[in-house]
Amino acid sequence: MSAPQDPKAEILKLREGLGGPQDLFYSAANQVPLPIIERAEGVFLYGEDGTQYLDVSSGPVVSNIGHGNAYVAEAMAHQARTMDFAYSRTSRHRPNMALTARIAALAGPGYERVGLASGGSEAMEAAIKFLRQYAVAKGQGSRRIVISCNPSYHGGTIGTLSITGDDALKPFLDGFSIPSIKIPAALTYRTPDGMTPEQNAERSAAALEAAIRDAGPHNILCFVVEPVGGLSTGCNVPPDIFFNRVRQICDRHGIFLVYDEVLCGTGRTGQFLAAHHYPDAKPDIVVLAKGLGAGYTPLGAMLAPARLVDELAELTGFNFSHTYNANPVTCAAGLAVLDIYEREDLVGRAGRVGAYLRGRLDALQDRQPIIGDIRGRGMLMALEFVADATTKASLPAASNAVERIRALGLENGLMIYSRRTAGGKNGDWIMVSPPLTITEAECDELVSRLEATLNAFKTEVKANLGLDL
Ligand SMILES: Cc1ncc(COP(=O)(O)O)c(C=O)c1O
User: Fold this and answer.
1) Among 153, 287, 380, which residue has the most ligand 1 atoms within 8 Å of its CB, making it the best to mutate?
2) What is the pLDDT of residues 292-326, one digit of tens each?
3) CB-ligand 1 contact for 153 (6 Å cutoff)
4) E strands of 42-126, at which residues?
5) What is the DSSP letter of 397?
């Protein structure tokens, strides 16, 4: 398939295959028909026509234990048969108690309390609402402002979009959001003024402190940051010094520190929490989702220290919940997923097999200068594509790189998650974050199909734009 010559007509034609009651999201991004997936097993998804796709990104970094796990499916079915629902405000049930205890044990000291949610955005909102309610209960009602990074992504609800760092959201959010200040993210690849990543991290930390001073510490609720970035930065990993600085600054000004580990938590980076990589910069709150339910169930969690939760309980309590929080079937699924993590040592595998895959990707980069940067930690990586590896110049917008590589990936047996973020201002990348169960042989297969995909893309760019990549 080559790039559309008349994109508008092409989109209209392709959309003939879309539609129906579920298709709310007509957009230019739907340039190729999305394959209809019928079944999934291990690291593979299968289309209705039998085509096999290797799940390069675990969906949007969700399917950490792989697909089609019969043990998890059976645990869910058993729970549904035994006791389908009991409301968390009027009762307790064993799956809820066991799951929260298990998460707290894996998270370790400082995270003795676990609030369950039905996904990442909801868990992020719970974290912010919890801190806000704590501040109000302590007579610090002026603490309203959330500081976060630009770029960043924290969710799709109005509250979490407000703290997401994406300039394209400005018109949508103008006058329609919770108060938020953005500081420049500690990016490592394209740093301003030729700074080293460490210098850029210092700059970012200094911007945090300046923002706190400017707005007044008594007006700031918390600083929210992804310890390893997701799609918005292409897995940016700020240097360690950034987290130490940030912790010191938050302590100095009495500001809460929140790690959004919705995407990078639950074992992806080779530790159960990404926060475990930074013992001197432990956040006050950690938010998990995605890999916790691993695609089998919508599940998120807010982890908080007993000291804060118990103090608030004495004052006003935390007064917000959702109907489906901590429902038994979800909790049974979450427990079974954690059993698989343990049985298959998936956190250890993220480090070990992640390092193997990284080695294979590094070798691919040597053959493919279109790969400008490989970033990430453990089994959470992104490849950034460039027109020139020396100048780090991005690919021309006309190449529609991210979308075309996704589409060509389908033709080469790959399901790739990518999306142009911030209008491509910060570059173009794809997520390479397969299930943590992936074998070394499957990593080899992934890299070989990826190379075929990149070669097809380069041929297309040469034909359409006359550019040699
Ligand atoms: C870092 C981060 N935070 C929050 C969210 C929102 O999670 P959800 O889509 O489950 O609401 C996401 C989702 O991609 C994410 O990557």
Assistant:
1) 153
2) 999 999 999 999 999 999 999 999 999 898 999 99
3) yes
4) 44-47, 52-55, 113-117
5) G
- 172 and 319 together in one domain: yes
Question: Of the candidates 129, 130, 143, 141, which has an alpha carbon nearest to the alpha carbon of residue 216?
Answer: 143
Averaged pLDDT of the chain: 93
Which residue range is the domain that position 419 belongs to? Answer: 35-65+345-465
In tens, the pLDDT along 9-42 reads 655 555 555 556 666 665 655 556 678 899 999 9
231 CA closest ligand 1 atom index: 16
Nearest CA to ligand 1 atom 8: 120
Q: Are residues 109 and 207 in the same domain?
A: yes
- pTM of whole model > 0.90? yes
Band (pLDDT 50/70/90 cuts) for residue 1 is: very low
The sign of the CA dihedral 372, 376, 378, 382 is negative
| pLDDT score, position 12 | 55
Domain ends where: 307, 322, 343? 343
Is 272 a domain residue?
yes
Among candidates 465, 467, 235, which has minimal Cα distance to 369? 467
CA distance 258 to 256: 7
Angle between helices 70-82 and 328-343 (to 10 degrees): 150
CATH code for position 427: 3.90.1150.10
Whether 119 lines ligand 1, by a CB cut-off of 6 Å, is yes
Range list of β-strands (E), 307-379: 371-377
Q: Which helix (H) or strand (E) holds 111?
A: none
Same domain, 206 and 280: yes
Report the SS3 class of residue 459: helix
In a domain, 161, yes or no: yes
pLDDT for 10 equals 57
Are the C-beta atoms of residues 102 and 335 closer than 8 Å to each other? yes
Residue ending a domain, choose from 343, 369, 404 = 343
Q: In what order do the strands lie in the sheet with 44-47?
A: 37-41, 44-47, 52-55, 414-415
